[in-house]
């Protein structure tokens, strides 16, 4: 639990990389752009980083303040991810954007895609295993990668074409569905145990 450790940085990076899964979000981002909702890469990366770092340091405290435990928080996040996966698989719109902000940068891109219950829960569980500095290095590296992918979504679209994006969207919809189920089952068991 000491200072900077390359091995710990790499391990934490891989865990966060899998959870944040920005490549998996590409079809969602392109879909948002097709609906005419702007995505600001720089803004999205900054806000997501700020949220994740903030939650990393204040998450425990914040959840205790609202008397919510991590398990409940993760189950709530699982529902949101579940609904997003349904949108992708069934080609339906669940998250109607009727608010004043027509941009997609904040919702659903920053929350819950980049900085969602999955990332929050992962960050808090990583704290038990790794030194703070290593987790933060891993997080910042991931955010640099997120920024690059967000900047290049149009290029990715040209590379894959409409058909490719459609197939990837369906595929990642199922992946998201699986992640939501895993998040749900992993945390609902501990919730049920608490009630007994």
Write a structural description.
The mean pLDDT is 84. This protein has helices at 6-20, 22-34, 41-65, 70-90, 105-114, 117-126, 132-151, 153-195. Helix 1 runs antiparallel to helix 6. By secondary structure, it is mostly helical. The termini are far apart. It has eight helices and no strands.
Helix content percent band = over 70%
Main sheet specs: none
The tally of strands reads: 0
Alpha-beta content class: mainly alpha
DSSP helix count?
8
State the order of secondary-structure elements, H for helix, E for strand.
Answer: HHHHHHHH
Q: What would a concise description of this structure say?
A:
The chain is mostly helical. The chain contains eight helices and no strands.
Which SSEs are present, and which pair or pack?
Elements: H1 6-20, H2 22-34, H3 41-65, H4 70-90, H5 105-114, H6 117-126, H7 132-151, H8 153-195
Helix pairs in contact: 1-6, 1-7, 2-7, 2-8, 3-5, 3-6, 3-7, 4-6, 4-8
């Amino acid at each position: 639990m000491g200072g900077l450790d390359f091995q710990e940085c790499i391990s934490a990076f891989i865990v966060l990389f899998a959870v944040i899964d920005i490549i998996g979000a590409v079809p969602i981002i392109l879909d948002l752009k097709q609906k005419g909702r702007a995505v600001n890469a720089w803004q999205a990366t900054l806000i997501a980083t700020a949220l994740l770092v903030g939650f990393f340091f204040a998450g425990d405290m914040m959840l205790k303040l609202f008397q919510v435990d991590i398990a409940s928080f993760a189950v709530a996040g699982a529902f949101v991810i579940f609904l997003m996966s349904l949108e992708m698989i069934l080609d339906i719109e669940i998250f109607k954007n009727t608010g004043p902000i027509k941009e997609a940068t904040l919702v659903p891109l920053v929350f819950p895609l980049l900085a969602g219950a999955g990332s929050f829960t992962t960050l808090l569980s990583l704290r038990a295993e790794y030194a703070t500095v290593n987790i933060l290095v891993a997080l910042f590296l991931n955010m640099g990668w997120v920024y690059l992918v967000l900047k290049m979504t149009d290029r990715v679209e040209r590379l894959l074409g409409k058909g490719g994006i459609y197939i990837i969207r369906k595929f990642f919809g199922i992946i998201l569905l699986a992640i939501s189920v895993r998040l749900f089952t992993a945390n609902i068991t501990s919730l049920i145990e608490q009630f007994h």
